[in-house]
């Protein structure tokens, strides 16, 4: 009996230690009267006993473990201690949900790799900077050891560890003496920077900006030095040496030209070469007087030869690319024929895997960025069709992943801007070239290239032609001239040959009615990511999500004006319907603490962000909140329509 009382007293002592002594009667009534039983309690059991918050449950278990260890070290395991040990062994065998508290699993947890987060930082030198740096400024910052750098953190790092890594040689060591720094990010659709209000920890920053956005670092008290860093000097200094033919000394190749000016052996050579220079000058023939002003010196000849050689090299490389593409197309046709692959989706997936090269088309993880070769183009959103028709023909290898940069916009294309580019372009092409057809236009070859690129790089399918035109495009032996041009553009990536050999691919061009986005479809696509179960943050997030669901129902029924469910999906993913090959990274709905209640979207990772009130503030009235939603979802293409 004394032993039982001792165990009950231990349970009461644990509850008193964590300031929950008023719950002791609940434990007694439920016959939780010893530490072994306490260690076996699940989260649901503790909630029924009155310990509802995550923090209290953590402190309770920690205190139970401390008391148990103290009892184990203070007296030998006999009698009831042995019973306790047997009970724990049975728990570890038959209660796998609680087995994480056993020694074996704890060891496994210790060996588990920590969660990491890699972010791109841009360190500015001017403490008054309010805009993102230009191209020239980026080069100067890079030479000074500032500018862009990717730094990896553990998500569990504290603020002190975050600062330590940021100040290291891997980061920006010049920040150590600047008197503090601010963290900023670029506002949408402009280069203006705004301060990030959050804790200076990787976990907090990642929850606010996601995995792709850049963080700009700005000094507070003093400007950072723009002198070339020693690391940059070492990196840019060549260690290759060559022998001076006049003095027979090994000289660094970067210093060789300056050495020749002072080399003793070279002085005599320079003097002996002067008469030859005069002879060459006097022996050159003279042109008629009207051309005397034209500079015909031989200095220009190497440039002409170089230009000719560059053109020959480019032509040779283009020919090699075309030959490689033909081999790849024939290989895809043979594979699909041999394995009897007839589904156009499966064929397209195989073709995309074999033809597209360079950087991955889309992100597969929201914590990393993709690296690799791309076709980089810059286009004007206001005159997108014109600028696209100037940029696309200049590309020499259409197989590379397209990287799109809109004028005066800071968004980095990791998949989202490219999909938006193709969506707008396909709409404009339909209006200008197919509604109605302009047979006299010379642009249809470029249109064909854009069709092929959009199909291969997860853009919208070109289902904007009539069935008669599709038949003429792929079946007629002598089509009209504009159809021949369109066919040539498609075959720049082998699509004419592919459709002729694999007829089911014509489905990619056949016009079909667009399937409307339903309430069930969009709620299935935009899956919410809530905080830990039972937390106060989760309760608030569910309130916001409940309001959002009500808003979606109103949008689905046409009660939100111009907003429909397709626009909501487009805001988060850049597309109004699910791509034919699906989303590489499944769309998601996240919550963040911000002052503004305007939703934000990250189309590169297909994420919609809703605002949770800061510091326990109340949500706005429903009408006000829904007006915020309307304003955001009508803000298509990063600008009000």
The percentage of residues in β strands lies in 5-15%
**For the record, what is the CATH homologous superfamily label of the largest domain?**
Hect, E3 ligase catalytic domains
Helix/strand-derived category reads: alpha/beta
**Structure annotation, total helices:** 25
Provide an overview of this structure.
The longest helix is centred in the middle third of the chain and has 38 residues, at 301-338. The chain starts with a helix and ends in an 8-residue tail after the last helix. The protein is 47% helix and 10% strand. The protein is an alpha/beta fold and 641 residues long. It has 25 helices and 13 strands. The strands form four sheets. A five-stranded mixed beta sheet has the order 2-1-5-3-4. Strands 10-11-13-12 form a four-stranded mixed beta sheet. Strands 6-7 form a two-stranded antiparallel sheet. It has four domains: 2-111, Transcription Factor, Ets-1 (DNA polymerase, domain 1); 116-228, Ubiquitin-like (UB roll) (Roll), CATH 3.10.20; 334-508, Hect, E3 ligase catalytic domains (Hect, E3 ligase catalytic domain fold, Alpha-Beta Complex); 519-638, Hect, E3 ligase catalytic fold (2-Layer Sandwich). The protein has helices at residues 2-17, 24-29, 35-39, 43-49, 54-74, 80-94, 103-111, 135-143, 159-167, 202-209, 230-236, 256-262, 264-283, 301-338, 344-355, 384-391, 416-433, 444-456, 467-474, 481-490, 495-501, 519-525, 536-556, 565-573, 622-633, and strands at 116-123, 147-154, 181-186, 193-195, 215-219, 241-243, 250-252, 374-379, 401-406, 527-528, 588-593, 600-602, 607-612.
């Amino acid at each position: 009996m004394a032993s039982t009382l001792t165990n009950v007293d231990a349970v009461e002592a644990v509850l008193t230690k964590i300031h929950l002594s008023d719950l002791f009667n609940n434990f007694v009534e439920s016959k939780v009267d010893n530490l072994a039983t306490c260690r076996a309690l699940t989260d649901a059991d503790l909630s029924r006993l009155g310990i509802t918050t995550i923090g209290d449950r953590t402190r309770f278990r920690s205190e139970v473990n401390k008391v148990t260890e103290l009892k184990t070290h203070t007296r030998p395991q006999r009698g009831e201690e042995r019973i306790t040990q047997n009970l724990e062994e049975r728990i570890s065998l038959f209660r796998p949900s609680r087995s994480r508290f056993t020694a074996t699993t704890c060891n496994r947890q210790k060996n588990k790799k920590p969660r990491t987060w890699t972010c791109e930082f841009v360190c500015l030198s001017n403490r008054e900077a309010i805009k993102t740096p230009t191209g020239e400024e980026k080069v100067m910052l890079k030479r000074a050891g500032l500018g862009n750098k990717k730094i990896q953190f553990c998500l569990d790092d504290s603020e002190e560890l975050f600062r330590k890594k940021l100040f290291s040689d891997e980061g920006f060591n010049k920040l150590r003496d600047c008197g503090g720094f601010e963290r900023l990010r670029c506002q949408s659709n402009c280069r203006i920077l705004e301060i990030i209000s959050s804790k200076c920890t990787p976990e907090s920053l990642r929850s606010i900006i996601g995995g792709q956005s850049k963080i700009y670092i700005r000094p507070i008290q003093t400007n950072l030095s723009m002198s070339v860093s020693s690391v940059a000097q070492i990196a840019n200094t060549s260690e290759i040496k060559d022998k001076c033919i006049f003095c027979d000394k090994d000289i660094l190749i970067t210093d060789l030209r300056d050495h020749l000016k002072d080399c003793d052996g070279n002085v005599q050579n320079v003097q002996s070469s002067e008469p030859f220079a005069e002879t060459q000058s006097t022996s050159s023939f003279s042109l008629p007087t009207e051309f005397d002003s034209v500079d015909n010196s031989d200095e220009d000849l190497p440039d002409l030869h170089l230009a000719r050689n560059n053109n020959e090299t480019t032509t040779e490389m283009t020919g090699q690319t075309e030959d490689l593409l033909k081999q790849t197309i024939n290989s895809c046709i043979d594979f699909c024929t041999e394995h009897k692959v007839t589904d156009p989706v499966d064929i397209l997936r195989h073709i995309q895997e074999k033809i597209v090269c360079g950087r991955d088309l889309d992100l597969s993880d929201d914590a990393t960025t993709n690296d690799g070769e791309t076709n980089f183009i810059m286009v004007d959103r206001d005159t997108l069709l014109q600028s696209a028709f100037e940029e696309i023909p200049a590309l020499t290898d259409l197989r590379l992943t397209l990287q799109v940069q809109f004028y005066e916009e800071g968004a980095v294309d990791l998949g989202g801007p490219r999909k938006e580019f193709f969506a707008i372009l396909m709409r404009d092409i339909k209006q200008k070239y197919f509604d109605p057809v302009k047979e006299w236009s010379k642009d249809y070859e470029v249109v064909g290239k854009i069709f092929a690129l959009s199909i291969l790089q997860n853009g919208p399918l070109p289902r904007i032609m009539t069935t008669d035109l599709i038949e003429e495009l792929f079946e007629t032996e002598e089509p009209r001239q504009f159809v021949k041009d369109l066919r040539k553009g498609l075959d720049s990536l082998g699509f004419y040959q592919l459709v002729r050999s694999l007829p089911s691919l014509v489905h990619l061009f056949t016009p079909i009615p667009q399937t409307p986005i339903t309430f069930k479809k969009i709620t299935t696509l935009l899956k919410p990511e809530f905080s830990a179960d039972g937390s106060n943050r989760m309760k608030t997030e569910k309130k916001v999500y409940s309001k959002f669901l009500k808003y979606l129902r109103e949008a689905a029924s046409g009660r939100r004006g111009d907003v429909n469910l397709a626009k909501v999906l487009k805001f988060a993913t850049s597309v109004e319907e699910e791509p034919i090959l699906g989303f590489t990274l499944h769309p998601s709905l996240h919550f963040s603490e911000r002052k503004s209640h305007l939703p934000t979207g990250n189309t590169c990772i297909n994420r919609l962000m809703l605002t949770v009130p800061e510091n326990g503030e109340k949500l706005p009235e429903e009408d006000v909140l829904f007006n915020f939603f309307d304003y955001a979802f009508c803000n298509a293409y990063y600008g009000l329509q």
